[in-house]
Amino acid sequence: MFASRVKDKVLLMALVVATSLSLSIPAFAAVPPVRMSVTPGGQSGIEQEVCDRLSMGLSNAQDIVISTVNPDWFITCTIVEKNDQVTGQIRYNGTVTVKTRDGQVITTSSVQKYNQDYVVPGQQLNKRLVENAARDVIQAVTDRSLPPIQQAVEIEIETRKRIIEAEMKAEDDKYDEATAVLRAIGPDSPRFKAVRALMDEYAMEKEAMQLISTAKSKARAGAYTQAVVALRQVNKKSKRYRNAVALMSQYRAHK
Question: What is the pTM of this model?
Answer without folding.
Answer: 0.77
